[in-house]
Predict the structure.
Amino acid sequence: MSKNRKVTKTIQIGDRVIGGGNPILIQSMTNTRTEDVKATVAQILRLQNAGCEIVRCTVPTMEAAKALSKIKKQVDIPVVADIHFDYRLAVAAIENGADKIRINPGNIGSKERVQAVVDAAAARGVPIRVGVNSGSLEKELVEKYHGVTAEGLVESALGQVKRIEDMGYDKLVISIKSSDVLMCVRAHELICEQTAYPLHVGITEAGTIISGNIKSSIGLGLILHQGIGDTIRVSLTGDPLEEIKSAKLILRTLGLRKGGIEVVSCPTCGRTKIDLIGLANQVENMVADIPLDLKVAVMGCVVNGPGEAKEADIGIAGGCGEGLLIRHGEVVKKLPEDALLPALREALLNWNEEPDRD
C-alpha cells in the first residue's frame, strides 16, 4: 500500500475486496447486449484473461436482468449491473446474482422505489455504487454553483449517499465522473476529504483510443498519485480490451502495480531501417501473455540501440535488414530482421536459462 494512500471503508464485491488499502482493481464494461448470454460471457472471459477484475453489464430490460444468473455461472470475476430509471430492474438484477449494482438514485424515482432497491441489496449484502455524472447534475445544483462544477458533483454524490444511509444501508461505493479532466480531479480531491467510502475513478466519455487514453492517463494519474481511488476504469470508444491494457499500464507507471512486461521503444528517425512501428506493436502484443516482470526495449537502429536498451532487461535494435538481440546492455546475437521477434519471444519464454550467444 502506498504510504499516502487514502484509507477507505472495506467493501466486498463478490470474491474481491476493495478499500481499506487493498490493491486498486481494474474494471471495464461489456458492450454486448446483456440479453445475449453467449456473446456477453465470451467478452467477459476475454476481458478477464486480459486482466479485468470487475466487469459491469448494462441492464436495460428484464430479460437482461434475468440473463445475469446464467452469465454469473460462466465467469470468475464479479459482475456489476448498470441500472437507470427502472427500480424493478435493479431489484431483479440483485435477485439474479449481481455482485454489485450501479444506480443514480436521482433517476430511480420516488423514495419508495429507492427504498425497494436498498432493501433488496441489504437482504443479500450487495454493494450499491452511487454514480453521479457531470452530464446529469441536478438542475438546482447547476443553478446554485452557476454551472456544472466539482463542488456541485460532490454535493450531489454525498446527497445521494445520505439518502441511502437514511434508509439504513451503508455498503456503498461512490463514483463522480466528468469528461472535464481537471473538474474530475478537483471533485475527487474534495470528496475524499468528506467521506470514507471507496471511490471508483474514471474520466467519463473520454473519447477514442487516442484522446481517451490521453485524458484518462492525465486524470487518473493526477487522482491516483494523490492516493485517491480504489477501483478504476479507462473509458474508451473502442474494444473494451484496450481499456484493460491502458489501466494496467497506468497503474504500473504510477508504481501502484507490479508484474507484466513493460515495452519501451524509441521514436522513429532518419536512421531507422526497419519497420519499427510495426515491430514495437507486435512486441507489445506478443508479450501480453508472458508472466514476467521485465522491461523490454525495441530500438530502431544499431547506432544507439545497445546504449538506449541498457536500462532494459532485454531488447532488440534494428539495422538494415537485420538487428541485434540485447540482454542487460550486452549484445547476445545478430539476426535477420524477420528473426528478431521469434528470438525475443524465445528468450523471454526461457528467461531463466543462459542465452546462446554468437
